[in-house]
Amino acid sequence: KQEVTQIPAALSVPEGENLVLNCSFTDSAIYNLQWFRQDPGKGLTSLLLIQSSQREQTSGRLNASLDKSSGRSTLYIAASQPGDSATYLCAVRIGANSKLTFGKGITLSVRP
Amino acid sequence: DGGITQSPKYLFRKEGQNVTLSCEQNLNHDAMYWYRQDPGQGLRLIYYSQIVNDFQKGDIAEGYSVSREKKESFPLTVTSAQKNPTAFYLCASSLPPHTEAFFGQGTRLTVV
Question: What is the pLDDT of residue A92?
Answer without folding.
Answer: 95
